[in-house]
Amino acid sequence: MKRLKIEKINEDASIQCSSVFSKILCEKVDVKITTPLIVNVKSISDLIEARNRGVGVYVPINGDISGACVFLFSDDSATSLCDKVLNKTKRTISELSSYDKEVLKELGNILLGCYLAVFSNISELEIIGGMPKISCDMFGAILEEITSNIAINAQQALVFKIEFTTERLRKEWIMILIVESKEVNKIFGSIK
What we know:
Elements: H1 2-25, E1 30-33, E2 37-40, H2 44-48, E3 53-63, E4 67-74, H3 75-86, H4 98-123, E5 127-129, E6 133-138, H5 139-149, E7 156-165, E8 170-179, H6 181-190
Antiparallel strand pairs: 1-7, 2-7, 3-4, 3-5, 3-6, 4-8, 7-8
């Protein structure tokens, strides 16, 4: 039953994210969020190729659960999405301006906000997102910065893959919900 609720959360959040991104890009966008893996925070780097460079958007969360929600774009995904939104030509991550980074931060914030809103509604947990932050670095360094910035003893995480598809663009991203171990039990206890 809990797996079905998580699948329902992911399905509803995928529909909401698809709708929002379709409006932003003025074309059909399909967003699919996978069922998460529950992993030890120290094991996340094994799943995400920690030495790869990219962009991380993170939102601290409070309310009935505490932690952070993180969205990771690879260099290629970040530049492809930013170029598509801003109608620019292909660039590298080092060529992104501060404005481009703000656009990526807002896009990541929109995706995280959609997911957390659906998660909160279905689980009936109050989840309050804080101000989004952005970091451009190796994924391992981004995660280390995030886990050191959240004032919790983060031990477990839910790791989701997100497939983002348009007519000419297909990318896979990672979303991570980092919480204390007792919070994972609270999350699954709330989605009966």
